[in-house]
Amino acid sequence: MPGPFFFAWVNSDETTFNPAVHNREDENIYAFSADHAEGEFASLTIEIRNPRIGLLAPSRKQWAWLSWDNGSAIEPLFFGRLVGIPTSINQEIVTLVFSARPADYATRKATVADSMRVLPFYDPVWIAPDKLSDPDVVLEAYSALWHIDRVTHEVTASEILVGDNPVVAFSEADVFYDSVSIEIGTPPLRSATVEGKVGWTQRAGGFLDMGKHNIRTYTGGSLMSNWPKPGANIGGGWEVAGASCRDAWGVENTVTASFSASYTNNSKKHANGDAMSASWSSSLPQFTGPYLQCVLSSKSQTGLVDPGDPLSEIWGAGDPISIPSSFEVNYFYVPLWLINTTLSLSYKAARKREETISFVLTTNVQPLITLPGEEESMEIKLSSVDVSMDIPGYGRPLADGSQSNFLPSPRGQQSLQYLIALARSTLLLRSRAVSVSFACRFERAIALSCRKHAQIEDHRLPGGSASGKVVAYSFSVKGDSGELIGNVTIGCAIGYGGAVTEVAGTPDYVEEGYVERGYQTYSNTINVLPTGDVGFSPPVYGPGNDDGVIFPLTRRQAVMHEVIHGTEKAQKDLIEAAFASNILIAEIGDNPAKTVEAMQQAALAAKSTVEEVMKTNAIWYDLQLRPLTGAFAVAYQIAPTQLEVPRMIDLEAGSSP
Fold first, then answer.
1. Which residues contact 108 (CB under 8 A, 6 or more apart)?
2. Which residues of 565-587 are buried (b: 16+ CB within 10 A; e: fewer)?
3. CA triplet 97, 111, 399: central angle to 5 degrees?
4. Is 214 exposed, middle or buried (0-12, 13-18, 19+ CB in 10 A)?
5. What confidence tens digit (pLDDT) does each residue in 558-579 have?
6. Which residues lie below 8 Å from residue 518, measured CB to CB, with a gap of 6+?
7. Which of 31, 229, 248, 488 is at 20 to 30 A from 136, Cα to Cα?
8. Closest CA relative to residue 639, chosen from 193, 197, 121, 196
9. Does residue 582 register a pLDDT over 70?
10. Helix 592-616 vs helix 568-580: angle between axes, to the nearest 10 degrees?
């Protein structure tokens, strides 16, 4: 009667075991051994009679099922592919090696990895763009390894410390007494020092209306010529979006009116008999608003003015009465302007920002060494991609690119948790510093996988027992004796156990419940990772970390200084004082031409003096805006709780003889 072990060569697509079809003995098996270690493909080594054929020939089947009759059913033990030319090919007995690697392993692994790209254990912020599609990168913060089932070829991720429930228990009667061994491995890491740098360009844009101003000034020309023009770049990220400056009283377009008249009085004669006559002409600006006027004049010595004449104060009075033959009067005008202004500004901020988070994560593991300072530690340093830019397939981590901070935000705290999870993963793997190995019955071993969690009771072990993830197992049949046996190795973490409790914290501004959570900060908060074994106090962004600008800008934030310098009254007083010191009375004597020239030069000097007074005492609009350029760096330091590592073996406990 055939059995109890069966070996069937099959096609690659016969991936489902059929006990009615695959219960064949296509080869005579003398011995076999199946081995499976975590993170690797299970392998099958079998010894068969040499078939004297090319086992790797293209026409031959290269996949095989190994199964056995357990007394009640035919149970599959292994499905895999021949991986090489048989050893001892010239002997009667040859050795074949098969691997339980799925034909579509890469696709299966990628599918599982895609389902695990979930915050906070997978964060593209910290992953190089060329590694985003790498499925192995997905496991780095999960504290897990790939597991490939030796029969179904199902690909899953399996946690490195705690396997699936239920726990597989081995009593002292279930294992071979002399096979139990304990091995102390590499001392665990005591701590991990982590530093993460996040960078982005803070971008924001908007408009700010500076309102309207009505400015009365005697120096309106300079104000109008210097008023900002639309499109002008005024520095610091600011630009003039719109501006106007209107001369309400039309000073720039003032027209000059000319008048002339003549007068003849035939009833009065000069000594020579001519009728008394006069003529005059004038050119006067036609201002629509107020103005200041300074009189510059000349007088003749050919006659004296009647004391009752209105011009007597200018010309002087005397006797006998005689009207001058000619005279001229010069005026200097300073008009008052009414300037109506508007100003609208736009801003485009592009500010480099960097946040650094640093912390030290410690573990509560049992000591393996006694010398101080010998505990090992590790260092992790990561830099992020630009979190304000789109990550293909994941969007923008910093959805609002105008934000002043990232790590204190809810999304930023998930990136922080990734860093903690990354350190946690390595610390936990190194905490598995003890391995316990033992032999057991064949039937117990074939029920195992590297997803299982096992516990062994043995009075010789510290504390009388040990538990841990199955890190390796095997089962075999020896050809010479027919002995069926299994071997198991479990990895034991040497922590003290424990859990971390979430703490809501104390509200910083108002009592709890007054506002919804999220509207204020909390002190002494402890957030716990989904794993439940480590917590942290989130970083808080506060004043002093930058220039305090929060977008969108308000007028109060943007304007550092705004004032109109000078007043109309102060200008008027200064101009009139300049007039008073420069009024010119020029007498035309024996050389009228020379005196008129002197008068003209004095008039120009007077005008220059007044203009200098106006230039140095102009009314002007002074606006200072907060610059929106620059670079800002913020450093946060947090203190995570101690990483609580499970106690799977108590090295501090004694054992029984």
1. 102, 153, 154, 155
2. ebebeebbebbeebbeebebebe
3. 145
4. exposed
5. 999 999 999 999 999 988 888 7
6. none
7. 488
8. 193
9. no
10. 160
The residue written with tokens 């530690």 in the block is 377
Among residues 332, 341, 338, the alpha carbon closest in space to that of 252 is found at 338
Q: Can you tell me the distance from the alpha carbon of 431 to that of 424, in angstroms, rounded to the nearest whole number?
A: 10
Q: What confidence tier does 487 reach under pLDDT thresholds 50, 70, 90?
A: very high
Which of 49, 44, 54 shows the shortest CA–CA distance to 93?
A: 49
Task: Give the pairing of strands 452-457 and 256-269.
Answer: unpaired
**CA–CA distance, 82 with 64 (Å, rounded to integer):** 8
Cα(303)–Cα(320) distance, rounded to whole angstroms?
A: 8
Vertex 153: Cα angle to 148 and 157 (nearest 5):
35
**What are the structure tokens assigned to 412, written together?**
């930023």
Asked if 405 contacts 412 with a C-beta cutoff of 8 angstroms, the reply is yes
Per-residue pLDDT band at 91 (split at 50, 70, 90): confident
**Residue recorded with tokens 């599959």:** 76
Q: CB–CB of 185/473 below 8 Å?
A: no
Q: Which residues contact 230 (CB under 8 A, 6 or more apart)?
A: 240, 241, 242, 243
> Which of the pair, 594 or 332, is modelled with greater confidence?
332
| Strand pairing report for 585-588 and 291-300 | parallel
Residue 554 to residues 206, 230, 551, 557, Cα–Cα distance (Å): 10, 21, 8, 5
**pTM for this model (two decimals):** 0.81
Distance CA 552, CA 204 (A): 7
Q: How are beta strands 522-523 and 74-82 bridged, if at all?
A: unpaired
Q: CA–CA separation, 538 vs 639, rounded Å?
A: 9
Average pLDDT over every residue of 608-635: 90
H or E stretch at 422: helix 410-431
How many CB atoms within 10 Å of residue 308?
8
- Most distant CA pair in the chain, distance: 171
Closest CA to 95 of 65, 50, 136: 50
Q: What is the pLDDT of residues 264-290, one digit of tens each?
A: 777 766 566 677 777 777 888 899 999
pLDDT at site 309: 44
Round the average pLDDT of the chain to a whole number and report it.
Answer: 86
Q: Contact, 350 vs 631, CB < 8 A?
A: no
Residue 450 has pLDDT above 50, yes or no: yes
Is the alpha carbon torsion for 514, 520, 525, 526 positive or negative? positive
Cα 199-641-528 angle, rounded to 5 deg: 75
